[in-house]
Every structure is written in structure tokens, then in C-alpha cells.
Design a protein that fits this description.
heterodimer, A: 303 residues, mainly alpha, two-stranded antiparallel sheet, 4 strands, 3% strand, globular, B: mainly alpha, Four Helix Bundle (Hemerythrin (Met), subunit A), 2% strand, rod-shaped
Chain lengths: 303, 196
């Protein structure tokens, strides 16, 4: 009787594990799917700032390394353990110097490493998935133009990483938008070019939703509550809603909002420095004036 | 103070003698003994013991005392983080006045001098708000404030010097330069010592 029970449990267990492996298999983009593209480093730099890459990928030791180089290694606390963002300078041994175009696109758009493992979604690829492949390739070109820094990968502080990364594959079925490979969502023809640019920057590289959209118990951003604020990823404080910013009196008008994004605390906007927003604002301040205004146009339109 | 009262009372309860103990010490009655589950003998007041020789009730009281002491200490340092925030918010008030002056283009020497003096006074207050061991309860104060005290002091002095200079300006051009320097000095300290 016990032997039969044990056998049943073993078979069911193996079947369940098999199902888990199948369901959590990473879905990669193939190199043949990439359109031909001439990279634009200048656009790449804009995306580097819009994407806030340096905020996580900043070097661990700023005394030794230029703090503007994304050499990685600075600890990032997350609900599942401490992560160490990797080196994304073009160092061949410890950075992304040897990465191909499709490997970089899979990393940024699908959250899959060159070795086929899932990235923990502290890397906000659920937002970057909305970026166009052209922009991602421009970003790669910019990163490849930076000075290579040797900064070896630090082991993650996540327990059972293989299992967690595999589990992320399941999570991705819920959370990673099924975006068309080629591009970001099509622009809204009823809105201005500036508004559409702002929408693209906010939804894609800006990854504002990662903090400003509340998440459910599975840490999947709640559909229907886009940018409505909620609990901060730090688990303690609250992140404000970005809806009706002007109507609620937080900013006088669109230009005031744009100034707030561009100048932050130094311009007297004292709500632009708490909870990680200081780093965001510091990155936004490096964007072209028109892009900051576009972001303001889009955000101001959220009712 | 409630915490101290409870600590004293619980100490008294732990060490109080039972009637049987008192009688035995006067040569009357049997030596009071209690045995634990595994046969160990305890010579303490005869309240029930199960596994250890410590009075159960005294454990509870000592525990409460401990929590209250911690809460008391924690609250006083948490209050300190409120003080720090209040000082900085006051600095922001002065800052906003000067932003208004800078945007309007109408240089007002008296206003600028008054607000600059307020910033200096606030930064002086700020100096004493980070005693050793007071990091707990303040999520915005980085550990570097205490591990790199010299650097923190230097950053604070830098901001204070900028405010002193700001108070001395006499025309719009000097004001712009001094105000930019003040912004940079504030940012310099925040970048290193304030957590996001």
C-alpha cells in the first residue's frame, strides 16, 4: 500500500516538475527576427538617461571608478534578497563587450540572459519590453562606446537562484506583456507627437509603472491601475499616483510639471527627492528639453 | 517613568522570597524545593516551574520591561529623525523664497540676507542632531554619516559657508552665483549622506 502511494507521489511529482519546466521555459527572440538597423549612439545616450540605467548599474566603488560608468556591483535590496546589478560596460570578460545584438535585445526586452536564464524582474524589463528594437540597439551602441571597466560579477544574495530564475519564467507568463517584437505600442493618432513621445518614454524606458503602479500578491503590476500609486517596493512608504497631478494641485500647470521633472529639489520642488525619485529626477534632468516636456504632457493628461 | 517602574517591580518579583523560604531561613519548616520536569532542583520562590528554574511570570514581566525600554529608547531616536526632517523642511522654505526672488529678477538684499541667516541657523541646529548610535528609526540618514563623520561635517560646513556667502551678496549677479553655489553645496551633502 505504501509502495503504491510512494510510486504515485513520485510520478505526480515528476509530472508536476515537468509541467513547471515546460511552463517556465524562456521565450527568446531569434536573431533572424531582428530588422536591419544602423545604430545611433546619440539616441542611445538619451535612452540611457531615460532608462535610468546608471541608477542601478552604478559602480560599487565610486572612489575607484567613474560614477558615470555603469560598472555595476552596488547592492540592490529586493523582497527576495540582495541583488548586484551586473557590469554593462563593454569589458569583454566581465561586462557586455562580447554580447551580440540579439542577446542584448533578449536581455532588455524579454529579461533573458545570454545563457538562457531569466533575470529577476528587479531589472525592469516588463517596462523595457515596450521599447522598440531600434531604440534598444541604439542603447547597445551607446553602451559599447563607453570605457570598458573590469568589474567581475558578484554572486546574487538570492537563495536557490536556479529555482528562482526558473520560477520567474512562470511569473513572466503573467507579467510580461506579449508585445510585438518590432515595436512599441503604435502611437495614438488623436494625440500630438509630443504626447506620443511622452507616452513612449513613460511606458518604456522611463519604467515609471515599476514603482507607480500597484502590484498584487504575486508582485504582478495590477491591470487597470496604471500609475495609480500604492506601496513602495521598499515595503514601507507609499508611492503617489500620477493621475490628475494638476487637478489635485500638485503642480500649477504642464510647464510647472516639466520644470519639476527637470530641476527637482534644486528648483524648490521638494516632492521630487523622496523614495528613489531623486535619482529618477537626476536622470530626467539629462534629457533634452523637448523630451521632458513630452513626459509632462503625457502625465498631465492622465485623469 | 513607566519603563523603570516595571523594571524595578519585575526585579522585586524575581527575587522575592516565598513564605516557605522565609520560614526555613528562620529554622522552621522544611527547605523549600521545587523540581523541574527533568529533575533539576530550584531554590527559588515556589511558583510552578516546568523546564527551567526561572519563574514563568517573571519572564513575562522582564520581557515586557525589555520591550518598554526598547520602545522608550527607540522613540527618543525616532523623534530625532522628525527633528532632522523639520530642520531640512525649514531650509527648503528659505530656499523657495530665494527661488522666487531668482525667478522674478527683482533682487531683494534684505530678504536674501534674512533667509540666508535662517539657513545658517538651521544648519547649526543640524550639527547636533546626529549623535552616535542614533541611526535607528531614520530611513533617510545613511550609515556614512556615522562611519564617515569627517566627510559629513565637511559637507555640512560647506553648505553653511555657502549660506554665509549668500547672506553677503549685494547685487543680482553675485546673488545668482552664490545661490547656484548653495544649491550645489546642498546637493553635495544629499548625494552622499541622504538615502533615497
Amino acid at each position: 500500500m505504501t509502495r503504491k502511494l510512494f510510486a504515485t507521489v513520485a510520478v505526480v511529482g515528476l509530472a508536476a516538475f515537468g509541467a513547471f519546466l515546460w511552463a517556465s521555459e524562456p521565450v527568446e527572440i531569434a536573431a533572424s527576427q531582428l530588422p536591419p538597423h544602423t545604430p545611433d549612439k546619440v539616441n542611445g545616450e538619451v535612452l540611457f538617461h531615460a532608462g535610468g540605467c546608471i541608477s542601478c548599474h552604478k559602480p560599487a566603488d565610486t572612489a575607484q571608478t567613474d560614477p558615470n560608468l555603469p560598472a555595476g556591483g552596488a547592492p540592490l535590496a529586493t523582497p527576495i534578497g540582495t541583488l548586484y546589478p551586473p557590469n554593462i560596460t563593454p569589458d569583454v570578460n566581465t561586462g557586455i563587450g562580447a554580447w551580440t545584438d540579439v542577446e542584448f535585445v533578449n536581455a532588455v526586452k524579454r529579461g533573458i540572459s545570454p545563457s538562457g536564464q531569466n533575470y529577476v524582474p528587479a531589472f525592469p524589463y516588463t517596462s523595457y519590453a515596450h521599447m522598440s528594437v531600434d531604440d534598444i540597439l541604439d542603447l547597445k551602441a551607446y553602451l559599447m562606446s563607453l570605457k570598458p571597466v573590469s568589474s567581475p560579477r558578484h554572486d546574487t544574495g538570492v537563495p536557490l537562484p536556479w529555482l528562482v530564475r526558473r520560477g520567474v519564467g512562470l511569473w513572466k507568463r503573467l507579467a510580461l506583456p506579449e508585445t510585438n517584437l518590432a515595436d512599441a505600442p503604435a502611437p495614438d493618432p488623436s494625440q500630438s507627437a509630443a504626447w506620443n513621445r511622452g507616452a513612449y518614454l513613460v511606458n518604456g524606458p522611463g519604467h515609471c509603472a515599476e514603482c507607480h503602479t500597484p502590484r498584487n500578491v504575486l508582485l504582478v503590476p495590477e491591470a487597470g491601475k496604471y500609475l495609480e500609486g500604492g506601496l513602495h517596493p521598499n515595503g514601507r512608504t507609499k508611492v503617489p499616483s500620477l493621475h490628475n497631478l494638476i487637478g489635485r494641485g500638485l503642480f500649477k500647470d504642464v510647464n510647472d510639471l516639466a520644470d519639476g521633472l527637470k530641476q527637482g529639489e534644486e528648483g524648490g520642488y521638494d516632492n521630487m527627492s523622496a523614495g528613489g525619485m531623486g535619482e529618477v529626477q537626476s536622470n530626467l534632468s539629462k534629457l533634452p528639453e523637448a523630451d521632458v516636456k513630452a513626459i509632462a504632457d503625457y502625465l498631465a493628461s492622465l485623469k | 517613568m513607566p519603563a523603570e517602574t516595571i523594571a524595578l517591580t519585575s526585579t522585586g518579583l524575581i527575587f522575592a522570597k516565598s513564605d516557605r523560604q522565609i520560614a526555613w531561613s528562620r529554622g522552621m519548616g522544611e527547605r523549600p524545593e521545587t523540581r523541574t520536569k527533568n529533575g533539576r532542583v530550584c531554590c527559588c520562590p515556589n511558583i510552578e516551574h516546568k523546564e527551567s528554574c526561572v519563574k514563568k511570570s517573571s519572564l513575562v514581566i522582564a520581557g515586557i520591561a525589555g520591550i518598554m525600554m526598547t520602545a522608550f529608547i527607540g522613540t527618543s531616536f525616532a523623534a530625532m529623525s522628525d527633528d532632522r526632517e523639520a530642520v531640512m523642511k525649514d531650509v527648503m522654505k528659505s530656499f523657495k523664497v530665494m527661488i522666487g526672488i531668482s525667478k522674478s529678477g527683482q533682487f531683494d538684499a534684505a530678504e536674501v540676507s534674512k533667509e540666508a541667516a535662517a539657513i545658517v541657523a538651521n544648519l547649526d541646529k543640524f550639527k547636533d542632531l546626529f549623535p552616535d548610535g542614533s541611526q535607528a528609526g531614520d530611513s533617510k540618514a545613511k550609515a556614512e554619516i556615522w562611519t564617515d563623520r569627517a566627510g559629513f561635517e565637511a559637507a555640512r560646513n560647506n553648505a553653511r559657508d555657502a549660506a554665509v556667502n549668500l547672506g553677503k551678496v549685494t547685487d543680482a549677479t553675485a546673488f545668482k552665483a552664490a545661490f547656484d553655489a548653495q544649491s550645489a553645496a546642498c546637493k553635495g551633502c544629499h548625494d552622499k549622506y541622504r538615502a533615497n
